[in-house]
Amino acid sequence: MIWTGNPKIRSLARFFEARWFLSIVLVGVFLWSLTGVDWNGSIVHSGGGSSFKDFSLGLFPPELSPGFMKLAIIASWQTVVHAVAGMTLAVIIGLPLGVVASGSLGNPSRSRLAIAVVVRFVLAFMRSIHELVWAVLFVAAFGLSSLAAVMAIAVPYAGMLGRIYSEVLNDVPEGPLDGLRSAGGSSFSVLVYGRMPMAITDMLSYSFYRFECAIRAAAIMSFVGIRGLGFEIQLSLNDLLFGEVWTLLFFLFGLVLLVDYWSTRVRRSLDS
Amino acid sequence: MRNHASAWRDFVQGRTGFTFARASLYGFFVLAVVSWLYILVGADSGFGDLLSSRAWNNAGGFLRQLLGLEDGLTGEGRPAFLQLDRWGETGRLAYETLMMSVLAIGLAGLGVLLTFLPAARNVSNGELGGRPSAVMGAIYHVLRIFFAFTRAVPELVWAMVIVFFLSPGILPGAIALALHNYGIVGKLSAEVVENMDPGPARALRSAGAGNLQMLAYGIIPQSMPHFLTYLLYRWEVVIRTTVVVGFVSAGGLGREFRLSLSFFQYTDVALIILWYLILVLGVDLISAFLRRMVRTG
User: Fold this and answer.
1) For residue B3, what pLDDT band results from cuts at 50, 70 and 90?
2) A85, B118, B230, B263: least surrounded by Cβ within 10 Å?
3) A199/B4 CB distance under 8 A
4) In sequence order, which residues have a C-beta less than 8 Å from that of residue B159 and are 6 or more positions away?
């Protein structure tokens, strides 16, 4: 670096690199964010205290009647259905985009690189927008239906999957690929017989992790009117039936734990 | 280092090691087929509409109104994103949204700092100092369940619950975001302590360090960089989610997004999305810069 000669500036640079400087910045930024809260107004709104009490008391016990349990199971199923459908579509869209973004298909040329850069940009755009914002836009464009929810999960998740797929495909060791190339393999056969087999475990592992997130995403699709756990939580909240809210929260908890356990076991099995 | 090529061969031929993953993959395929059938056979999936030109005309019309190429129901004239003062007004909301995201990640970080030590197994069982006790063991389990629960419930659901108690503004949304991310960062940070290299701590212990010194010189220096990195990564996710939480908690861009959409002011929606993308990009860049500082600093 050019300023290494000047001791005064060098110590300044060291100051800026120091961790405690970073800590001060972070604490300062946090304090700045606190000024955004209207501390003089009422933090808890009128009746907020008593509804907090009611909400807490709703836990003892949560609503456990057979009829409601049946409703909660159906709602969980609807959430799973949308998560799975969104996830499959995300893989179907994300895989080809990821392959193109990795730039490993076709002859090496400037145009191929340009296409890869454009696709990377598209993937970044897809995942920049939160799934629920996509959902609101899809509902405005296509009307309220399962389609909107499935697309809303598929688009940003395809953006994330595509990015990770392209990175994983690029990170494979070059040695075996050179072997295939020198044997006269086309870039397509290098991809299918060289890159894919080496990358598949990481790709599957990440996809299963994303599936876990898709469950949560599907649950909040209720916000645009798709049925599922979030939808029922909203209904029960509106009716002030906090016991039911707790039951549904526990169902969501159980569902996420189940998928979490599944995806952890899959990843462990893939890594061994 | 595992051998990828042979792993693939085993995978294709169904040999050892891959049985659970294979079964899961087939299981997922079955689940996918059943799910798609459930959606497509269901009364009103919306996928049938994709074949009709009317649906695409509607969607095209929406897109044109978003881009200001076609006047909507309001006939507002010049698109909002071509008016400088509208950029300023929406920018103030973007500023509020940014504040909300920082507040959320700050609260989550504060919560994690206070609780991640007793949530690490090697701290609670006394491996890294302190005395093992039934109370510490119980605290460990309670914290781990609390992490799992707060993380399983999405931010938006937390926000729906919290607006029942707190006045609208950026605080309820920030708390909702903080709760969910507390669970995520808390679990990750506790795991960092659990997977820590025990060498330095043992050396400190044998040199006669007390519990506080163990913490200051053994645990904090090793776990802090990971903690900050996780926090910064989560900040990138939080800024994307802040808008969504704003839908219900009435803070920042989210509320305006909903209002503009329900008043059919689609060019305003476009302007809000532009600001949203600027925020997301900006936070991604700042976070990447700070993470590099954490690594090298």
Assistant:
1) low
2) B263
3) yes
4) B172, B173, B176, B177, B245, B248, B249
Lowest-confidence pick of A20-24, A106-110, A234-238, B120-124: A106-110
Task: For residue B268, give both structure tokens.
Answer: 């305003």
Say yes or no: domain A68-271 is CATH 1.10.3720.10: yes
- Residue whose token pair is 């059943």: B34
Domain residue spans in chain A? 68-271
In this complex, which of A128, A255, A257 lies closest to B148 when CB atoms are compared?
Answer: A257
**Lookup: tokens for A44:** 């808890």
Q: Residue A61: which region, alpha, beta or left (left: phi > 0; alpha: psi -120 to 50)?
A: beta
∠ CA B66-A153-B29, nearest 5°, is 145
Nearest to B258 by CA among B242, B277, B244, B241: B244
Query: Would you identify the CATH topology of the domain B82-296?
Result: MetI-like fold (1.10.3720)
Residue A53, min C-alpha distance to chain B (Å): 10
B12 CA: distance to closest CA in chain A (Å): 10
Judged by CB atoms closer than 8 Å, whether chains meet at A133 and B243 is answered as yes
Taking contacts as CB-CB distances below 8 angstroms, the residues of chain A near B216 are none
Confidence band (pLDDT; 50, 70, 90) for B1?
Answer: very low
**pLDDT tens, residue by residue, A193-210:** 888 888 888 888 888 888
DSSP state of A39: S
B11-43 pLDDT, tens per residue?
A: 555 555 557 878 888 888 999 998 888 888 876
Q: Decide if A142 and B4 are in contact by the 8 Å CB cutoff.
A: no
- Residue A209 contacts B where some CB pair is shorter than 8 Å: no
The domain segmentation of chain B, as residue ranges, is 4-45, 82-296
d(CA A16, nearest CA chain B) in Å: 8
